[in-house]
Amino acid sequence: MVRPSVAKLGTNFRCYVDFDVQREKSFLNLETLFGNDHPVSMEIGMGKGLFMQQKALDEPTHNFLGIERVKKFLLFSASRIEQMGLGNVKLFSVEAREFIERFISDREIQNVYILFPDPWPKRRHRNRRLVQKDFLLLLREKLKDSGVVHITTDHKEYHQWICKQIEELEGKSFISLPAHRTEYITNFQRKYEKQGKDIYFTRLQVLRSQ
User: Fold this and answer.
1) Alpha carbon distance 188, 153 (integer Å)
2) Quick one: 6-17+33-206 is in which CATH superfamily?
3) C-alpha span between 147 and 111 (Å, rounded)
4) pLDDT 10s digit of each residue in the chain, 210 long?
5) Is 118 labeled as catalytic in the residue annotation?
6) d(Cα 20, Cα 147) in Å, to the nearest integer?
7) Beta-strand runs (E) in 22-173
8) Does residue 133 contact residue 165 with C-beta atoms inside 8 Å?
9) Which residue among 20, 37, 58, 118 is the active-site one?
């Protein structure tokens, strides 16, 4: 079988949304996108999509929006999603921060998953890290009142950095929830657990005054 090309993602896979941030001007209508009003969760940097595939299969009345900029990973994930017949997944190849800020309406998302983001370990590159205080505050705007941010990393210093970003928000914008390993894993988690590496889990629930 000939593998579909990256250039034809949009024509080969129903789950892929060919979205041009330069052309689009308005917020996404998630109910129209998915064809229902089920709760929506978002995974940022989904890689090959193992986590999302498992969740979407087990939760057919929940919708999943995946963001991944690396087209070869997106292609792999889209192929698997189509093979599994998952109609509750939509994939976007966009820059996460701009996409979320400009195209996701406030209080629309139930969960945001950030699983094994690039740790950018060099000090001079830390401003490139996805998990920053201002980004967490942006996610808070887009999350429902009961919404939760889930963050997982194998990088100890990055985990400490994440905890530092949360400190000023704790009790004001978010509350920390007990965090532990779940039955749903990513390819990275599977790899690192086999290597015996420590995995650090963080969960934050929106705190919002009425």
Assistant:
1) 9
2) Vaccinia Virus protein VP39 (3.40.50.150)
3) 5
4) 334 455 556 557 899 999 998 899 899 999 999 999 999 999 999 999 999 999 999 999 999 999 999 989 999 999 999 999 999 999 999 999 999 999 999 999 999 999 999 998 888 888 999 999 999 999 999 999 989 999 999 999 999 999 999 998 999 999 999 988 877 888 888 888 899 889 999 999 999 875
5) yes
6) 27
7) 40-44, 63-67, 89-92, 109-115, 143-153
8) yes
9) 118
